C-alpha cells in the first residue's frame, strides 16, 4: 500500500524544518504587529515630500453630496384628472353640466399646480379645452334646434 504523498522517497527531514527551501527566501521576515510600521522594503523614491499627499486648506474638501438616484415623480393634481374626466363626460353623457364643471375644475387645478408644483398640467389643460369645446357644441346644437323650430312654426301649410 502506498502513501498519499508518493512512494515514500520524500527528502523532507524534520530536523531541518527551519531552514529555507533551496537558495531563495520565499517570504519576507516576520514583522511584529505592535512595532512601528515601516515600509518594507524601504523605497527612497517615495520618501521625498513632493510625493506625499498634500494637505488641503479647504475644510469642505471631500466627498461630493449625493445628487443622483431615484426621485419620486411629482404627484398629479386630483382636480386636473377630475377636469379631464368631466370634460369627456360633457362630450358624451352629461352635456352641459359636466362641461361647466370640467372648466371650473380645470381652472382651479391650474392655479393649484402653479402654486404647489404638482404634476397634471396637461390633464387640466385638456379638461379645459374639452370642456370649452363641448359647451360650444352644446350652444351650437341647441341654437340650431331653436332656429329650426322657429322656422318650422312660421311656415304655412297652405
Short characterization:
Helices cover 45% and strands 0% of the residues.
Q: What is the mean pLDDT?
A: 79
Helix content: 40-55%
Gyration radius (Cα, Å) is 45 Å
Instruction: Report the portion of residues in β strands.
Output: under 5%
**Helical/strand content category:** mainly alpha
Distance between the amino and carboxyl termini: 136 Å
Write a concise keyword list for the protein shown above.
158 residues, mainly alpha, rod-shaped
What's the layout of helices and strands?
Elements: H1 78-92, H2 95-116, H3 121-154
Plain-language structure description:
With 158 residues, the chain is mostly helical. Helices cover 45% and strands 0% of the residues. Helix 2 (95-116) runs antiparallel to helix 3. The longest helix is centred in the C-terminal third of the chain and has 34 residues, at 121-154. The chain is rod-shaped.
